[in-house]
């Protein structure tokens, strides 16, 4: 058993039961440990939560960076693959949704982290639209702030729909089609063909 194994189980259980609904004992039980066994690596639940957040963020950021690497309009098109990524790791998606929900509470241990995450993702979307405008790929009248907010709203909402339909919604296809429509609407000369 490695620290990463503990963190992966923490992410899984936090995603399934929420942060408040997951005890150190539940995580320890998965490894046949006592609470003290987990506390040896993470002296408090707060430290474990912080490490689990970092672990989940590393997984998501590496996936996101690969998608947006081309920048501009092609990066926005590539974001259409986010649905397939979510389908491949539903536990991580559930964890992210639970954190978003728990982050709404003013006294939540994840509120600041969630606000920073949103600001970072929103900033990325704004920069992609601005880059596309600067390259001449995206219409100059496009509003980067509005476009970024709309993309985030769609991705947050479609993930919820996927879970509420017991994952029967064709998430990968739906996200891909939506982002193709965004690209078509934003492109200077109609749809951009890869």
Question: Mind explaining what this structure looks like?
Answer:
The chain is 73% helix and 0% strand. It is mainly α and 194 residues long. Helix 9 runs antiparallel to helix 10. The protein is elongated. The N and C termini lie far apart (45 Å). The model has no long low-confidence stretch (mean pLDDT 91).
Features:
194 residues, mainly alpha, 10 helices
Give a quick rundown of the structure.
The protein is mostly helical and 194 residues long.
Distance between the termini: 45 Å
Helical content stands at: over 70%
Average per-residue pLDDT, rounded, comes to 91
Cα-based radius of gyration, to the nearest Å: 19 Å
Query: What does the main sheet amount to?
Result: none
Sequence of secondary-structure elements: HHHHHHHHHH
Shape: elongated
* Helix/strand/pairing category: mainly alpha
Approximately how much beta-strand content do the residues carry? under 5%
Number of strands: 0
List segments where confidence is low: pLDDT < 50 over at least 5 consecutive residues. none
| Number of contiguous helices | 10
Outline the fold blueprint.
Blueprint: H1 3-17, H2 24-29, H3 35-41, H4 45-68, H5 72-78, H6 82-88, H7 90-102, H8 111-135, H9 144-164, H10 171-186
């Amino acid at each position: 058993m490695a620290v990463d194994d503990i963190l992966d189980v923490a992410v899984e259980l936090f995603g399934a039961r929420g942060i408040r609904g997951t005890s150190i004992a539940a995580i320890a039980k998965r490894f046949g440990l006592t609470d003290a066994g987990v506390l040896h690596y993470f002296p408090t639940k707060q430290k474990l939560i912080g490490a689990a957040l970092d672990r989940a963020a590393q997984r998501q950021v590496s996936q996101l960076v690969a998608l947006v690497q081309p920048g501009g309009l092609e990066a926005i098109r590539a974001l259409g693959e986010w649905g397939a990524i979510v389908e491949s790791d539903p536990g991580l998606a559930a964890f992210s949704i639970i954190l978003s929900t728990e982050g709404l509470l003013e006294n939540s241990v994840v509120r600041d982290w969630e606000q920073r995450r949103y600001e970072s993702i929103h900033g990325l979307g704004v920069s992609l639209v601005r880059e596309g405008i600067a390259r001449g790929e995206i219409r100059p009248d496009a509003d980067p702030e509005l476009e970024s907010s709309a993309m985030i709203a769609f991705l947050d909402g479609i993930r919820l729909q996927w879970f509420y339909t017991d994952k029967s919604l064709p998430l990968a296809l739906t996200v891909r089609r939506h982002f193709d429509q965004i690209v078509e609407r934003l492109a200077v000369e109609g749809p951009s063909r890869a």
